[in-house]
Amino acid sequence: MDFLTHPLLITDLGEHHGVQLLLARDELTHPELPGNKWRKLKYNLQEADRLGLATLLTFGGAYSNHLAAVAAAGRLLGRRTVGFVRGDELAHRPLNPTLARARTDGMALHFLDRETYRRKHEPAVLAALLRETGPAYVLPEGGSNTLALPGCAELAQELLARLDFDVLAVACATGGTLAGLLTGLAGQRRALGVAALKGADFLRDDINQLTQQATGHTYANWELRTDYHGGGYARLSPELRQFIVDFQQRHGILLDPVYTGKLLFGLLDLAAKGHFRRGSTVVAIHTGGLQAWSGFGGQPG
After folding, report:
1. Predicted confidence (pLDDT) per residue in 99-128, tens digit
2. Other CB atoms closer than 10 Å to residue 279's CB: what's the count?
3. Are both 10-33+145-296 and 54-135 of the same fold?
4. Please, what is the end-to-end C-alpha distance for the chain in angstroms?
5. For a Cys-Cys bond, which of 100, 135, 138, 282 suits 95, CB 3.0-4.6 Å?
6. CA–CA separation, 86 vs 84, rounded Å?
């Protein structure tokens, strides 16, 4: 069970203020399950098989890449999928392109008011949802749990085997991808996360907790930047939109508006401010998420 259908492409973005910047094109590894979403699903799906659970149940916002990925995985692998969406159902009518595609892929959509959604992890609330849907393998919002880490660790190990680099950088929302990369680096090199949401200081504890649960270790070779959220999760400022347009014109690569746009904006700003040692090599990971452009009026430019 492996959907990484293309070898990982590394694009050289050139030298910026004495720092060599490379882009790991994980968004190209599969047309429907790109980047970190498949990597986080891979071992969870194996566990669902082991438990004999053919239904996948998960959670997300109206433009969730994770919901889209789980729905696509369900169609490709013949699994029943159920998605609980944050917010009132009437507010999401007609369905936006992300939710419409998830439904086309076979996902049964249910809507939760924001108070219930905040409590979705509580045993009583989750039990009530499972009574409604029937037995299912439960994936957390964003797909970030201990079984998400090994798939992301494989990416770090592949990069270590191929490249000599100093820093591995990725955008963060739930922290699962960065936690997995840390376990794959196993203390080698440094890692940097750029938070895609406002008020993300809590992610430091979440990431440490994930790595501790998965490996028995926490790591000191990483940092989290919380100053490049661009106004908040799924907020696309005019400045960020123009940056993405300029980046695509310069490099021929489309960044997504929720994650990798903020990641590359942040890395180039940090390089300009001398954050990285001159002569160092930074590898940024394009994690996909291009389907999110449908919620911003289509691709820019």
Report:
1. 999 999 999 999 999 999 999 999 999 999
2. 10
3. yes
4. 37
5. 100
6. 7
CATH architecture under which domain 10-33+145-296 falls: 3-Layer(aba) Sandwich (3.40)
Domain range list for the chain:
10-33+145-296, 54-135
Out of 64, 144, 280, 294, the active site residue is: 64
Over residues 255-285, the pLDDT tens digits come to: 999 999 999 999 999 999 999 999 999 999 9
Statement: the pTM of the whole predicted model exceeds 0.90: yes
Can 144 be counted among the known catalytic residues?
no
Q: How many CB atoms lie within 10 A of CB 103?
A: 14
